[in-house]
Q: What sequence folds into this?
């Protein structure tokens, strides 16, 4: 991706791409086939400091720009989307602590999370509260020096594996979204139960879990003041939507590259597919739409870097990139014909992996609502 990166960032991204080529891409098909969590792949990325790519230097990260973060995520997703899914879920958890936590919580969790010692999860979604977090039922009630946390979270990436989980729960049922608070819950806390990983259509190595809570959490593990959890979650999701956009770009670029290579090599009637105008136009449309998605994502990244509010730009990027990537991958499969439909090539995996991008971290419908409300100034 043509991000504006300084020399250090270019070197960091080149190191990521080398690991992607040597470690992630060769194992991507097996991870998908066996639905195995990409531990070795994440460990290789941890050695490069990638687990803290979203964090400033004072909290253990490399202190790189949002553009370098997006470029890194794009490269990882293009090599193995399951690995990118687990990693970006980790970013959600550390973003939440960075944005909502005090220095004591940051000091306790972020350096270890950045180094790869501790994996995080972000528990917002519930069976009855997905796109509308204000409907959540998970409760946190004061009990002694802490909170009794009860309820169920669903579709939580890394949830049953994570060393810590940022959990959102209602502390004031009468205050709607202003009554939601956030807590850091550590692995091993009595009263946490995780289901086996869900059997999913795509991102099979990016394990998602149902989590049940009936546990006591210290008050010192609350992120910010009571009632500030919803605001923290929305800021985190703005970041996350840009990262989802970058994931979509990475997978779609891999699909486009495969289609171009196939069109050049595949012979039909004595001529390569690339000689046929119909194929040429398909590839032209794919590349044009993908470039438009890149520019929207770059706009959101620039706003994120500047410190400006970027909720609408993040939603535009996520909406367009996720829907465009699905079209690009589908056309790439079409160009491969019957071969694209087989498990021997990665095209069908790209199509499956991309399907969730229009759903998680806010569905396409929710992104349209956010964009419209920003433009119309309605709530």
A:
């Amino acid at each position: 991706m043509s991000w504006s990166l300084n020399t250090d960032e270019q070197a960091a991204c080149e190191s990521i791409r080398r690991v992607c080529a040597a470690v992630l891409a060769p194992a991507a098909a097996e991870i998908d086939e066996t639905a195995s969590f990409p531990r070795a792949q994440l460990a290789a990325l941890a050695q490069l400091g990638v687990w803290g790519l979203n964090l400033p230097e004072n909290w253990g990260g490399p202190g790189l720009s949002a553009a370098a973060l997006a470029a890194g995520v794009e490269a990882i997703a293009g090599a193995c989307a399951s690995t990118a899914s687990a990693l970006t879920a980790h970013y959600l958890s550390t973003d939440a602590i960075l944005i909502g936590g005090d220095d004591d919580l940051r000091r306790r969790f972020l350096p270890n999370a950045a180094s790869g010692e501790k994996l995080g999860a972000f528990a917002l979604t519930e069976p009855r509260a997905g796109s509308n977090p204000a409907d959540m039922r998970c409760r946190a009630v004061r009990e002694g020096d802490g909170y009794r946390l009860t309820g169920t979270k669903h579709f939580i990436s890394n949830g049953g594996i994570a060393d810590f989980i940022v959990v959102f729960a209602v502390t004031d049922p009468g205050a709607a979204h202003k009554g939601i608070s956030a807590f850091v819950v550590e692995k091993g806390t009595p009263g946490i139960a995780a289901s086996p990983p869900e059997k999913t259509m795509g991102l099979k190595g990016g394990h998602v879990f149902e989590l049940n809570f009936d546990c006591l959490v210290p008050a010192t593990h609350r992120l910010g003041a009571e009632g500030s959890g919803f605001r923290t979650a929305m800021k985190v999701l703005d970041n996350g939507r840009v990262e989802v956009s970058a994931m979509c770009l990475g997978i779609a670029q891999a699909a486009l590259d495969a289609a171009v290579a196939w069109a050049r090599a595949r012979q039909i009637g004595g001529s390569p597919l690339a000689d046929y105008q119909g194929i040429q136009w398909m590839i032209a449309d794919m590349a044009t739409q993908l470039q438009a998605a890149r520019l929207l994502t770059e706009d959101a990244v620039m706003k994120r870097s500047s410190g400006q509010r970027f909720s609408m730009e993040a939603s535009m990027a996520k909406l367009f990139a996720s829907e465009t990537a699905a079209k690009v991958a589908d056309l790439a499969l079409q160009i491969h014909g019957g071969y694209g439909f087989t498990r021997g090539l990665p095209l069908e995996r790209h199509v499956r992996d991309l399907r969730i991008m229009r759903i998680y971290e806010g569905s396409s419908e929710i992104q349209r609502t956010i964009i419209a409300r920003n433009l119309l100034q309605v709530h």
Observations:
- The first strand starts at residue 120 and ends at 123.
